[in-house]
Amino acid sequence: MKTYPWLNKEYIPETVILANGEFPTHSLPVTLLNNSQYTICCDGAVEMYVQAGYIPSAIVGDLDSLDNNNKHKFASILYPDKDQETNDLTKAFHFCLKQNRKKISILGATGKREDHTLANISLLADYMDHAQVEMVTDYGIFTPISLTSEIECLPGQPISLFCMDLYPITTIGLKYPLYERIVTRWWQATLNEALANKFIIQTKGKVIVFRGYLPNL
């Protein structure tokens, strides 16, 4: 059984992908951005990232959102990808794999357009087949899991589960337990709550786990 730890502000990400959603403001994703050893910017995220005082390690995308000034300034770290079958987040993810970077924290992937947010969250179910990946937002952390898993958390923490297939799911350690439940809609396993410092999900399928922040954390 695999254990998924709760991230804290001491964590040093091996690789961060910064997408072109809302720029992080919560203290946890901001700290991860500060601690990052290597940050890949989707091209639409570059302007905000640079304005915040950072320098990207690499810029990936079709580069249509990058102004001429930044194209010139960062010419040596531009990695254009014109594939129209994938979005810029996936292009950045594939770039990580080519660089053998397989421990990835994704920031800035939610907010703004809701269709982009839903698409980016659902992509975690694909990414997990190739890398250890989590999406950290201003409201919590999305972690994709498969098979039976132990999830570290905080007592009282908001928990939502999004099943990506029709395998039965059982939970242990949540306020509203599920037993051999087949979840057919995304809302059906949301708005739960952790009872202790960990909970267990038993399944043979893929589940995206959301752990929300507690107030003042």
Q: Short summary of the structure?
A:
With 217 residues, the chain is α/β, with parallel strands linked by helices.
Walk me through what this model shows.
With 217 residues, the protein is α/β, with parallel strands linked by helices. The protein has 2 domains: 133 residues, Rossmann fold (3-Layer(aba) Sandwich); 66 residues, Jelly Rolls (Sandwich). It is built from 5 helices and 14 strands. A 10-stranded mixed sheet has the order 5-4-3-2-6-7-8-14-10-12. Helix 1 links the parallel strand 2 and strand 3. The mean pLDDT is 93.
Biggest sheet strand order reads: 5-4-3-2-6-7-8-14-10-12
Structural class: alpha/beta
- Distance between the amino and carboxyl termini: 28 Å
User: Can you tell me the CATH superfamily of the largest domain?
Assistant: Thiamin pyrophosphokinase, catalytic domain
Number of helices: 5
Task: Provide the descriptors you would attach to this structure in a database record.
217 residues, alpha/beta, Rossmann fold, Jelly Rolls, 2 domains, 5 helices
Topology:
Blueprint: E1 2-4, E2 15-18, H1 27-35, E3 39-42, H2 46-51, E4 58-61, H3 68-73, E5 78-80, H4 88-98, E6 103-107, H5 114-127, E7 132-136, E8 140-146, E9 149-152, E10 158-163, E11 169-172, E12 192-193, E13 198-203, E14 206-212
Parallel strand pairs: 1-9, 2-3, 2-6, 3-4, 4-5, 6-7
Antiparallel strand pairs: 7-8, 8-14, 9-13, 10-12, 10-14, 11-13
